[in-house]
Design a protein that fits this description.
Eight copies of one chain form a homooctamer. By secondary structure, chain A is of the alpha/beta class. Helices cover 47% and strands 14% of the residues of chain A. Chain A is built from nine helices and six strands. The first copy, chain A, has a six-stranded parallel sheet with strand order 3-2-1-4-5-6, with helices on both faces. In chain A, helix 2 packs parallel to helix 7, helix 2 packs antiparallel against helix 8 and helix 5 packs parallel to helix 6. The interface between A and E is large, with 41 and 40 residues. Chains A, B, C, D, E, F, G, H: This is Nicotinamidase. Chains A, B, C, D, E, F, G, H: Pfam families: Isochorismatase (PF00857). Chains A, B, C, D, E, F, G, H: InterPro entries: Hydrolase_YcaC-like, Isochorismatase-like_dom, Isochorismatase-like_sf.
Chain lengths: 214, 214, 214, 214, 214, 214, 214, 214
């Protein structure tokens, strides 16, 4: 039996860093396996979560001067101040750029939460290399995306087999939160309502209105 | 042959008003026939479009103190200043509330662009009554939503048969814009990129980056 | 322009009767074009609505001793007391059974709300015959079902072309209700929450809890 | 109001003929808008129905020596004895082959039930030409198929607009049957159970077993 | 080879308890990966099953005074009398609330059947913690739900990897039943027909009618 | 009865022109209602068809210097030599650019086959204006595309109501071909196999191999 | 590395038996996770395959006098002569009926190919018990079916984890065939064309026609 | 922890060979689990990739004189010059043909990238045998296809369990590329834009136009 690190390596604000790989304006346009807007909002949610819990983030792009395009402006707007953004000149696997590996290493966190576009390349190689370097890896599938469903199904099983913990955006945030009474509770509610689970914003507004009127 | 009013009654900033019917926090949660977030964004897009082109808007809610909940806060934030919001106490068809009919009448616009949640009730009855009152009606289906696909398919055909012009959010905005060189061009680009067609934001950011680097 | 009878022949408790055609235990098992349970719940919703507004109902079955099976027991349980149930011995079109036509005629209602399984046969022929007899017909698609999507798409267009008003369960009930402050408001809320739109039950329970706690 | 011929031109064994257009082994392989096997079974069902009710059938192929391939062998096996099979040498619209038009004319039936592969070509042109020649046309969509969903959606609306009655396989058969107590009842049950609605075979077998054991 | 506990730890009325985690009126509204009503009915089915077989149940909620809302009233109505309902004040993982862990421990059952909304948080953490505490865990996916398909796919693989037995509502009940001739047979048939597999109610009613008539 | 122009205005090489509206590299990336590659291939198919039958074509772009991007290079490569490409500086409706209207008028063809990206704007307005100018219009839906399914469903019904003939790429080509024995037969087979119906290429290659070996 | 028995325990006519579990007329009607007809045809395909290769088969039913209904008549028609059909009186897991276990044991085959309706119960328990008894198990998913997609997804992973080889109908048959030149080649082609892959019948008929004409 | 060979056996132009199994004109027509054209384009992409990186390829067919048909002509056109094409006379598992095994062995590459039609037979057995022979295997699912979704889901898990690395076309190419600055960068961009990810062609053309204009 394994609980995939949940009991022994639970994600906490102290032991976790976030890697956002190649959420670029050109690449996002190729996401066809699920809702592009969800990928966008979930990547933003991870960035805003980093601010809520004080997590370090490293962002990276692949050849942003070329057709891949710049990092999503709406994601840039959510990154914690000072987040290193490593612009790779050609390395497909982000960890093959020494600047990226150094930035990750400087975070000094054993648990890495990774999302990337496209799933079967940018997320995949970053996750596999991180595992190889001894990190615990949470691959966040719904903040990643790819060009067809089979590429996604394939990636899930390859990542599972390689030892990554497959996770969702809300799953990661909830593991970090641990208790709604903690200081991060209010910020988490905002991340859920605005970005990761918009239905929750509607439920919350309904509740507030009824409570005030009650 | 009919061109459904396009040549003779084309939507312009001068002849068009917008009705937003029951986009409430409780009702939106029942939208299951397509993406709730898209309904939300498209309703916001119509509201922001009103500001771009100076169109009058009337918003309305059904029993917002009850389970239907308040108007979506993110939609309220987009409404033009001074937009009348008519809170109906129980009338299912918005036009059966004299305050709503008066507010619509006060807009003095022959063309009404209508969106509503849920499609087969709130959008339907407002559209049918408006047609009965002699308005030209554009029912905006992708800014509306309902609880199942059959209710939507049914509604499209009932609206078509009743003489409403079936339209999309982007179709309405483009008919109002008419020429990208007009003053509304910049605002339309913003509405498209942020709300009605988020892919367009990515395309635009890619273009800007390449142009600057070029 | 036509508003499909909405302004001139609006459904009211006084001018409307409901026909439930062949919702039998054997036939329901062939519904594959959308959720069987939704068909079931919507047929029940129409029956319970009849009690809320005092509408007459006629139910009918086709050869219930044979493989088509008996009327759905959960639907029988919802029928208003005294509802005639006409067991046809073989007529495919319910109106070809004189007992059925007499029962419908005895309702003395110009507007007929019709649902049936399967859509392209039982709902179709009853709707076409009723139109031929001079009734206004509302064909309720989401309380009906058939064996494949193409049979449904085909049926919608045939019914539209024949002059039936295509409607949804919730659309019919809302047109009958007209105002939530009317006596039928409470019963309608129950029909929506328990049968026609179960999400509404959750929204309502959330609202009640928040109001009480507020 | 129109009831699309149901009351005035109801399909009967005496006034109806069936046209099966280009159900060939090469063309069937391109059907992607719904289940190929359903198209196959429904075309067979129409052929077997012709035998049940004594309807005339004309079948036709387009260049069967070429890649379109021969008529489906399983369909040939169901055709009534003596059915003319018109092998066209190149005419896309079957009615442009005089031999086909003559064979149809020789049936001397005012109502034509037409199915064809592919929908937007073979079914479409045969239906439009038949309408032009003054026939009443029932286009049977679920015994036809095409290469993508948009081609089908487009075809439904073009056929509706042109005045064809859109129908399903089971809808056609049931209109012909009219009463299960008639001589065709037994044969219809067989067509439904084996071909047009296989679920009905299971329901029937369950019923028989329970009745015998009861 | 492993048979996932089936041979050595088969679920029996004596060794099994049920945990229902956060089936609340606010959270259920976010379920978008499959049919909300199915989640609802399956959670009810597990509760009613507990009564059929005399299994202990522990239910829990997360901040039910807030937007998550109260436990689904229709689920409360199905819980065995005396079922402890642990209202957590903020702990995301139910097992971090000592009252919950104590209630579970008091059941004294090595096998835990767990369902929860949302899948990737409430079901996930409860399942992982239960595994960590040494319980055998059956995670019941179709009595759980989440906000998108990727979150579900991710959760299935994470749970599988962690050692949970992935199961369905009907799978759990059938393993408990073991033999339809046992005392629980009648109650199981009711749970299947009314809640877990409504088609079975239609099949059963058809059978009863045919047997009586036979 | 109408046959939508099929008998009286059948598309022929002499009476038909093709308009390709805004198939640009930026806009194509927003197509989400069906397969982008199919839109691409079908637009190419129409262009190559023009060469097969000697039809005139007018292509147009909207602000190709901006984010909409240049005309698809693979489409440019298929255009008949000398095809006018009208680059509009901002007019949403192509017919509002006098150069476009002049180019269309210069074709001197009463029947216009129109495809455009996006469907509810570029195809819609060009089709409506062409109808207003007295052209017969075939709107080719599967060579067009838009951002969501509701925008498409809406557009189909608006175009139908306005009097456009809804058509598919293969439907248009087949109506032009009329007889496979005509000179265009060989070219049509190539267009089908390479672009409009790739399955046909496989069927054709299989047939050729078997014939040669036979 | 494991090759799941392919190299060491490849399915051959000598080492393989087939178990068909509860393909009954009542249960098949609940299959909603994929095409019921495909389940039916694939179960028939396995039975006919047994005759092609001389494999022993054991079929079984659960309470066939009750609502589950008799074994599918079309499957009975395909069973090899003398196939034992074990009618269980209530045991959910077929192996808990000694007569079934004896019949399986009498086959004396180390590899069991198992299909069952419903997947998460009938197929599942038979597969798990067979694994526990030391058999190699191939669970044939596309000859099995269940009531919802989540029940299927869950079952695949539970079976994988338990050590069953997940397989398809065509995969099993092809492993048995091994070489098209072997005596079973002709029979396999028939099984593929008529039952397991009907497209193959069309391809074959096209080929034959072209070869003869070539 | 395993990284599935990524760190220790990364795919490089020196250690990798490609096997293309049975991409034949008859078999491709049976692909129904995802887009046939995507399978086609991805198989072509792998072939063109071989030329970009100088990888050896072995192609094979099963009974190409029969209904399976010849190798796809568009794939033949992409194969590197001199690619051995092994025409098997009947062996289902390509490795059972000594000529195929010899050709693979002659490549002398420890890593085999394999795609095949159909997935559960041609890809499956080649992958399992290659694993048995000691090769590292990357099974490329989106360059393979089969007749139904369950056959695919089943195959993914069987391949995963057997030790194959599940991969996508773009994943394989990117692992080979490793750095866009390497000599293969330009060729890879072409493969992506023309075949494996057509959206990338649009993004690239937009970028080029904007850069030139910038």
């Amino acid at each position: 039996m394994s609980t995939n690190g949940y009991l022994t390596d639970r994600l906490t604000p102290d032991n976790t860093g976030i890697l956002l790989v190649d959420h670029q304006t050109g690449l996002i346009l190729g996401v066809q396996d699920h809702d592009q807007n969800q990928v966008r909002r979930n990547a933003q949610a991870l960035a805003r979560t980093a601010k809520v819990f004080g997590l370090p983030v490293v962002a990276t792009t692949s050849a942003p001067q070329g057709p891949n395009g710049p990092l999503l402006p709406e994601l840039v707007a959510e990154l914690p101040e000072g987040t290193p953004i490593i612009h790779r000149s050609g390395e497909v696997d982000a960890f093959e750029d020494p600047a990226f590996e150094a930035a990750v290493s400087a975070m000094n966190r054993p648990n890495l939460v990774i999302a990337g576009v496209i799933t079967d390349v940018c997320l995949m190689f970053a996750s596999l290399s991180a595992l190889g370097l001894g990190y615990k890896v949470h691959s966040v599938l719904d903040a990643s995306g790819t060009t067809n469903k089979l590429a996604r199904e394939t990636s899930l099983l390859r990542l599972q087999h390689a030892g990554a913990t497959l996770n969702s955006t809300v799953g990661v945030i909830s593991e970090l939160l641990r208790d709604w009474k903690s200081p991060g509770g209010r910020g988490t509610a905002d991340v859920f309502s605005s970005l990761a689970m918009p239905f929750y914003g509607a439920v919350t507004a309904s509740h507030a209105a009824a409570s005030n009127a009650g």
